[in-house]
Amino acid sequence: MISKHLIIYILIGFIGAAVDFSTFLIINVYTGLGYIVANTMGSLFGMINNFILNFTFNYKLKNKHLQRFALFCSAGLIGILGSNLIIFLLVELMNLQETLAKTATLAVVVALQYTFNRLYTFRKELDQSPSAHTS
After folding, report:
1. Residues 6 or more apart in contact with residue 42 via CB below 8 angstroms
2. Can you point out the beta strands (E) in the chain?
3. Engineering a disulfide at 109: which of 79, 85, 129, 134 sits with its beta carbon 3.0 to 4.6 angstroms away?
4. Predicted TM-score (pTM) of this structure
């Protein structure tokens, strides 16, 4: 059975992906700052959006806001670095168009970040070990 949290996380993820992708397009097309800067900024805006929505509506947690945000950002920053590397390789080595390269990275990064955030960031009790988290 699919977890309720997974379904809501995916829906929030679509919103975050829209924020991420639209920011990427705007910066990449209209500013001339380049696709790596555009990807980084889009990912950051999407990450902040997703934390706020997941914290408020999905997991409905009321404690350790800063600690959870730090964990979420840690996963997000690792995701941004990985995403930037993948996009760079796809664009520079495989001559893939920048927007397609960005699209290709989203599924991989989202899956890895969901797993980390479900196990660590959004545990009811941060002091609890990940294996004790069953819901």
Report:
1. 19, 20, 21, 22, 23, 24, 27, 102
2. none
3. 79
4. 0.79
